[in-house]
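Recall that a protein's primary structure is simply its ordered list of amino acids. Everything else, from secondary elements to tertiary packing, is in principle encoded there. The following example makes that idea concrete.
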Amino acid sequence: MGEDFDTHPTVVTIQREWRRLNETLDSLTPEQMERPAFDPEFGGAPWTVKDLLVHIAAWKRNTIHVIELVRADPASVPGTGTPDEILEIDFEAFNGEQQARWASCSLDDALIEHRTAHDELLAALASIPPKLIPEPTTRNIWPYPAIWHTRMHRLDILDALER
C-alpha cells in the first residue's frame, strides 16, 4: 500500500476506528463477548457483543462490493451514498439474514471474520486510486461501515459492559 493510500484521510479514519474497536475487544473476556449488545429497554436486535463483530464485518464486505463497482467503472458509483443505497440492500432484511447465518458461530470464528473482512477491505481500497476514495467529511459515503458504523457499535459494546 502506497504512501498516498496510507495517508488518505478516509483510510486514516478507518484505521483509527479499527484500533479503537480492537482496543475495546482486547479488554473483554469471553463471557463479556456473550453479553447482550443492546439495552432491551430501547428495543433493537437481540445480539451479543460477539454478534456485532460479524455484523460489522458483513457491512465491510458490502463496502468491498461497492469498491468492486468503483474499480470496474468509477462513473457508475455515485459520489455519495452508503452501501445499502448503492447496492439496493434492504438493510433490515440483510441484518436479519446475517444474524441467522452467524448466530451459532464460535467466538474464534467471529474474531477471524472480523479481522479477515477488515484486511480484505483495506486490500480492496488499496486496489483503487486514492482519488476515488471519498473523503470522510459526511456519513453519506460508501466507506461508512468502516468508519461511523464501526464507531457506533464500539459505543454499543462499551454500553453493554456497563450493564
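The CA atoms of residues 10 and 61 lie 17 Å apart. The mean pLDDT is 93.
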